[in-house]
Task: structure prediction
Amino acid sequence: MYLQGDWKYRHHLKHYGHPSRTGYVDLLDGWTAERWEPEKLLDLYQRAGAKYFMALAVHHDNFDTFASTHHPWNATRIGPKRDVVGTWERLVRERGMKFAISNHGSHAWHWFQPAYGYDPEGPLKGARYDAWRLTKSDGRGKSWEGLDPQALYTGRSMPLPPGMTSIKQANDWHEAHDRVWTEASPPHNPYFAELWKARAIDAIDRYRPDLLYFDDTGDLPLGQAGLDVTAHLYNRGIEWHGVPNQVAATAKELPPEKAAAVIDDVERGNLSEIAKEPWQSDTCIGDWFYDEGVYMRHEYKTATTVIHRLCDTVSKNGNLMLSIPIRPDGMLDADEHAILDQIGDWMQINSEAIFGSRPAPIFGEGPTKVPGGMMDEHSNEPFTAADIRYTRKDDDLYAIALGLPADRKVRLNAIDTSAVQFVRLLGEAAPLPFRREAGGLTIELPDNLSRSHALVFHLPSVLRN
Result:
C-alpha cells in the first residue's frame, strides 16, 4: 500500500485515500472480527484433520494479536479489542490439540520503511507518507490515543531518499534496500531487537506453545535475540513438562550446524526425498492474507491439491501446516468451507494412513517429480493417478494413489510384493483382487468407484522381515 504503482496501493488510494493522509494505522479499526466464532472454526479444522493449531502472534506489520505486556499496539486495545491468541489457546487446549504460535515480527522494521517514502510521480509527488509525520499527538480522539505511532512503524531506518522521479526508480531502490530480506537488526537501533525479544518471551510465558514458528531464513531472528528466545522456549518446556524435547521452534534453511536445534520449515515447498529428521511444510490455500479477489475468481488450491500435498509431505517424514485465511469479520468464505468439507470427507476414510504413520522404505513412485525446495510449489506439476505415495505403521504398508486411474488398475512397481496376501481399499469392506506381475503388483478397482482425490490401500504385514 506504500509502493506507488502496486495494485494494493491503487486499492488503498481508491478506498481510503492517499497514504500521505490515510495510512496503515488508520486501517486497524477495520479489523473487527465481530463475526468470529473460533469454536465453529475449530470444528471445521479438526474434521479436516488438524492435530495442532497455530495462531499468528505478530506479523510483519508489528501489531501483536495478544495481550502484550511490552507493546501497546495490540488487539486488546485496537481492532477486535480482545486477546486473539489467548482465545485460540484456551479452546485448542480444551480439545486436546497441540498449540503453536507464529512470530514474524523480526522483519517489521524493514517491511515498514516504504511507509516513510513518497510518490515519485503524480499530483502528490514528493509528499511523504503518513509514517514520516505522525506523532503521539496525532492520536487525539482516535482509537490509538496515547500511543506512539512510531512504535508501530518502527522508525526511519532507511527511508526512501529524496529526488526519486519515477516509479521504476523508486521501486528499484526499495528492492535493493528496504525490501531485501534480512534477518539483521535495524542499523543504529538496538532497542528494536530488545523489544522484539521481550514480546516473544512474553508470548511464550503466557501461552506455553508446543511449537514456535519463526518466519526467518538462514538464521534465527535478530541474531542473539533469536537464540535467547529459542533457549527460553526450550528451558520453559522442560519446566512445563518435566522432560526435554516436548516443545520445538522452527526456522527455514538453517545451516547444518544450527539446523539440529529446530524443526526445518519449508515454506510453500516440499522435499524431493525422505528427510532423516521430522520437518514441516507450510502453505496456504490462497495468499498469506485474506484476498477477496482470490475468492471472487475461485483461485484457491483445491481440496485435491491439498490432499496430494499432504500425502507427499507425510511420505517424506514431514507434517503439513495449512493456512486458511480469515476475513476481517472473523468468517470464512463459501469456497473455504467447501474445501475444508472435502478434505474432512477424505480424512474420515483415510486418516489411518496419515496420523501415527512413518515413512516407508521409499516415499513413492510415479512420473511426477517434486524438485524440492522452499517457495517452489508454483513450479510443481499436478500429480496423476500413476503417482503413488507410501507410508507405514509397523509392518503394514499404505499405498496412496493420487487419483483414480482411467483403467481402474493401480500398479505398485517399487516395492517387494512377495509378502502381499491381502489388499484393502480404505472405506470399502471387501478386499480387492490383485495379481503379481513382472515388476510389481496390479490392484483391480471396483467399477462403481467414484472417488477422485486419492485412494489409500492397506497392505498388512508386507514389510515384515
In short: The CA atoms of residues 105 and 212 lie 13 Å apart. The radius of gyration is 25 Å. The chain has a mean pLDDT of 96. The longest strand covers residues 358-365.
